[in-house]
Structure formats: structure tokens, C-alpha cells
Write a structure and sequence with these properties.
Layout lengths: L1 E10 L5 H16 L5 E11 L16 E7 L11 H12 E15 L4 H4 L3 E9 L5 H16 L6 E13 L2 E2 L9 E7 L2 H9 L1 H10 L3 E13 L2
Antiparallel strand pairs: 1-3, 1-4, 2-3, 2-9, 4-6, 5-8, 5-9, 6-7, 6-8
Helix pairs in contact: 1-2, 4-6, 5-6
């Protein structure tokens, strides 16, 4: 299990999606890439906001992208000196909102190599536990859920990201009530047809029936992922 720093991103309202994605990829990405201690850095650009294949209450979360950073020092993820200030100033140019979560990541179905993933379809989902469940009860039930997902055909990769720490505003730790997100799901499929077939199968329907026993909402996004490091 590895810990990963993830940014939940909304663009500024006066930026088009095309301009936002181009700037994030071609200007901000190379800036962050300079940070010492980064072993991996991925950008996930939202391209679709439909639930697709699942009959589940959608949450109110609206994001335009998700960043993922594997950092050596989570307390100083961008090192020292001037670089953290430059990154923050650049974020203020094009981001309307940025929440940070530190997650404990588990690969349930091994994720393909980066070169293969370029041809895949990726879905990321924000999940929230049922209100009567504690955090520990949610974690235990999500582990059980992993075994249900393994029975679904067509799943090329599947990772669970359990939220361990939250920052509603970057650099300011917050409570669960301030940022009520329990986990982030990553699914890879060959294409959207394979996704629909997986969730429409008997195994997929049983898996989602189990999800309803411990989740109150799922907010799904299709994303176009880019590896920066």
C-alpha cells in the first residue's frame, strides 16, 4: 500500500475546458515536474460526467481534473526554496478551487503499464460512506467489495484510494465534515462498451448491490490521463 497526494481540481469559470487542459498539461505540468522527490506525477483530465453503467445516487461534486503525485516528503511535497511559491502562484492563475487528499492506495486488479493505458478508458469516482457507518467499518467493507469487483469481467485495472488526510484549502488540514470524501476509485476498461457490459453483467449487478450496503453516493467521471513523470 502506498500513500499518494491527490488534487481535486476545478478550473476558473472564465477559462474554457480546452484552455484549462492545455495550460495544466503544457505549462503547469513541467513546472511541478521540477520538484525533487517526485517519483510519479499523473494528470487526469475530466472528459465525461455521466454515471455510465451504475444506478446510484450521484453526489454534488464537480471537478475538472484530478492530479496524483507520489512524493518523498508529504509535508514538503515540492521541496524547499522558491519552487513551492512558483507552483502556488501558477495555480492561482488557472484554478478556481483545489482540494487536497492524501490517500492510501491499493491495486486490487493490477494496473497495466503506462504505454498500454494510453489505449484504455479510465473512470474515476468519488465515493462517500453511508452515514451510519464509521470510517473503520467503511474501510472493512470496501475490502470486501474488492473481492466482488474481481469477479467482474472486462476490468483491466482497479485501484482503491482510501482518504487518510484532507485539505479543503491547500496546506490547511480539515475535518471529514469539511471534505466528506471517503475514497476515490480508479477503473480501467478497454472502452465504454466494456464498462457498460461489466456493470450490466450478473456479477456487476451483484457488485453494485453490495456497494449500496455501505456507500451513500458515487460521483463518476471519465478521464483522459497523462503521465508527467
Amino acid at each position: 500500500m502506498s500513500k499518494v497526494r491527490m488534487g481535486l481540481i476545478r478550473k476558473k469559470t472564465d477559462w474554457s475546458m480546452e484552455d484549462f487542459q492545455a495550460y495544466w498539461l503544457n505549462h503547469h505540468g513541467p513546472l511541478v515536474r521540477q520538484a525533487p522527490g517526485l517519483s510519479e506525477y499523473w494528470q487526469n483530465h475530466v472528459i465525461d460526467r455521466l454515471q455510465r453503467g451504475i444506478d446510484f445516487t450521484r453526489g454534488a461534486w464537480e471537478f475538472d481534473g484530478f492530479s496524483q503525485l507520489w512524493v518523498a516528503d508529504r509535508h514538503q511535497p515540492f521541496g524547499g526554496g522558491e519552487l513551492p511559491e512558483k507552483i502556488l502562484a501558477d495555480e492561482n492563475k488557472f484554478l478556481g478551487a483545489l482540494h487536497i487528499v492524501t490517500v492510501e492506495q491499493t491495486a486490487v486488479v493490477a494496473v497495466p503499464e503506462a504505454s498500454i493505458r494510453k489505449r484504455m478508458m479510465k473512470r474515476m469516482s468519488i465515493i462517500r460512506r453511508r452515514p451510519e457507518l464509521s470510517e473503520n467499518e467503511f474501510r472493512a467493507e470496501w475490502k470486501v467489495h474488492a473481492d466482488w469487483v474481481k469477479t467482474m469481467s472486462g476490468v483491466v485495472g482497479y485501484r482503491q484510494n482510501v482518504v487518510a488526510e484532507r485539505e479543503l484549502f491547500k496546506g490547511q488540514p480539515c475535518s471529514y465534515n469539511d471534505l466528506p470524501i471517503d475514497g476515490i476509485v480508479e477503473f480501467w476498461f478497454e472502452n465504454t462498451d466494456a464498462l457498460q457490459a461489466a456493470f450490466g453483467s450478473p456479477q456487476g449487478q451483484k457488485t453494485m448491490a453490495h456497494a449500496k450496503t455501505f456507500l451513500s453516493e458515487i460521483t463518476a467521471f471519465l478521464v483522459d490521463e497523462h503521465r508527467i513523470i
